[in-house]
Prior knowledge:
This protein is of the alpha+beta class.
Amino acid sequence: MVAPTTERKPIDTNPSQSILQGILNSSREAILVVDASMRITAANASAQEAFARQNGPLDARRLSEIIRDLNLHEGFQKTLTENKPTDLRIEFTGAEKRIYDVHLAPIDLEDGRHTIGVFYDITQIERLERVRQEFLSNISHELRTPLTSIIAYVETLEDGAIDDRENNRRFLGVIRRNAERMNGLIADIAELSLIETGNVSMDVKNVKLSSVVNDIYVSLSSRARARNVELINTVESDVSVAADPMRFEQMLTNLIDNAIKFNREGGAVTVAYSESEGKSLVSVADTGEGIVPENLQRIFERFYRIDRGRTREVGGTGLGLAIVKHLARLHGGEVFVTSTLGRGTIFTVELPTA
């Protein structure tokens, strides 16, 4: 009887290295192990993805070939010589700039002392922190401006102007307008926060587009007349779009209101409809001065103003377009903008076809 044969597995000549590599690859953070000569002796898959670029495998390459950052090199050296952990922050520019918090620690392996570096990618955290700081700065400014005006006029009334029959009503009117501005800002902030968290229920129906546009034109007609802006509705009466009626009217109202505000005297606002590749396209066009390309990239950001002086003159909270963007996405669509300097701007809301 012939004894059964078993396949013999190759002997791992360096089992500790295999174990180390397995441990490193289990981490989502990028990890590099560097020896005393500043050569990389081990790198996990996340590090290969983050730092290899077109250089091929990282193993056996000098650290300076991969990451050209003096502070990082000094950190690895310091950890080796002082035999204690080091923490630092670096910026690495590959396909895009990334920011890392790096923790370096000494580690003894079979061939001597090494430094292991764990790279925590904090790019998104830093980006969110900048957004938070900018938001707080903007909201403080936007609230402080009307509040300062309210306090000034209240003090004027308290100092005796309450008995000034020629001006006391005017002062009270200024206080009311600034209070309404603050109230509108707070309402828009609450609305945007609700939308961004996804806590908005959408009741999508077939909405008659032309009727919605006409209703909005009626509600904004006094503003249009004040600027001598013509309101044009080119949408056929039988056109329907799939949208939540209230939210869709909110989007169009914001876009049409902006088109009136930032139009030129005697200009026009035109709402049109088309379909493309299974999508409904609702456009709001004005005949204003247009928007320069660098501003187009940021037009939907919260509080972003192209011309703060002009915006304050015509009113608005700076949140309208951000609300439009988020509402369009909640519908499964998007909003786009195109502009030609001296000729005007077109905002287009793209929605799934009804």
